[in-house]
Specification:
This protein has about 300 residues and is mainly β. About 0% of the residues lie in helices and about 45% in strands. The protein has no helices and 26 strands. About 20% of the residues are buried.
Length: about 300
């Protein structure tokens, strides 16, 4: 139902109720006796009627968006998330009304489609107040650059505000419940670059100078990409428009590479080997899957 918030931030729920009284010659001469209950009470004293509403706790749902860095969960800003009411068949419930839901972040809503809302994550957990009891789906519409999107999942909110995940297994590392809080973890996108000897397809070749750049006609900021593995010390450099490094004895793993299409070009071949003339084109999708030359 409707809610009213006072100057101190206390939330009250408006309940439909009636109080009967009789007025004769400008005075209240008869009225009902109404006892206080969980919804409040009416009181009549002389010609004064006092209506008291009982404060009612409004359920909240807390959602945390994190990534794991060095084994520790850290807040992840910039993810765009949508919450949509669904029916028992997990189809959009267009009869649901989320227009009165509030939060500690700015919510995006649609007057013509009140069954959904969306927001962008920041440093703090998001607390949704007044989310009606029912089933919902969470959709990550866009992950922060360099991170994998989380697959759509479902959850339910009970009449008392208890949250349960629907169809999410315990081994799911991306979505978990922690003390009633929904914790969503985005993994960094990792792409492994390996320079090997064509004769056996296994032996890593040292000394190849490699450049990774966004495909022609695209613009991606690569300055936040990091690397681990076998690149030669001091050769890795991530700039806004390209990544360069010299291969070492092991493959190089690029982390936080934004989703997109790229070219991998060999600028200098290892000693004793022929320079590869053509660049390799590869794509990284929103879920971190890599395809090379369309395969």
């Amino acid at each position: 139902g409707d809610t009213v918030t006072d100057a101190d931030g206390n939330v009250y729920e408006v309940t439909d109720s009636t109080f009967k009284f009789t007025v004769e010659n400008g005075e209240i001469v008869k009225h009902e006796t109404v006892k206080a209950d969980e919804n409040g009470t009416y009181e009549a004293e002389g010609n004064k009627i006092t209506v008291s509403d009982a404060e009612k706790e409004i359920s909240t749902v807390t959602i945390s968006k994190v990534t794991i860095t060095d084994g520790k969960a850290e807040p992840l800003s910039g993810a765009k998330l949508q919450i949509m009411a669904v029916d028992a068949d997990n189809k959009a419930d267009t009869t649901a009304d989320l227009s009165k839901v509030t939060a500690n972040v700015e919510l995006t809503k649609d007057e013509n489609a009140k069954h959904w809302l969306s927001y962008t994550t920041g440093e703090a957990d998001v607390v949704l107040t007044g989310l009606p009891a029912g089933r919902y789906t969470m959709i990550e519409q866009a992950a922060p650059a360099g991170f994998e999107k989380v697959t759509q999942f479902f959850f339910e909110v009970s009449a008392t505000g208890e949250v349960t995940l629907v169809g999410v297994t315990e081994d799911n590392e991306a979505v978990k419940l922690d003390g009633g809080k929904i914790v969503i973890t985005d993994k960094a996108i990792d792409v492994t670059i390996s320079k090997v000897d064509i004769t056996d397809g296994k032996t890593e070749l040292e000394g190849a100078e490699l450049v990774i750049a966004p495909a022609e006609g695209t613009k991606v900021d690569l300055s936040k990409v990091t690397a681990t593995g076998g690149f030669q010390k001091g050769t890795f450099k991530a700039e806004a428009g390209k990544i360069t490094f010299v291969s070492g004895k092991e493959a190089t793993v690029l982390s936080k590479l934004p989703a997109g299409e790229y070219t991998l070009t060999e600028i200098t071949a290892p000693d004793g080997f022929t320079l590869k003339a053509e660049s390799i084109t590869f794509k990284v999708d929103a879920f971190g899957k890599v395809t090379v030359d369309g395969k």
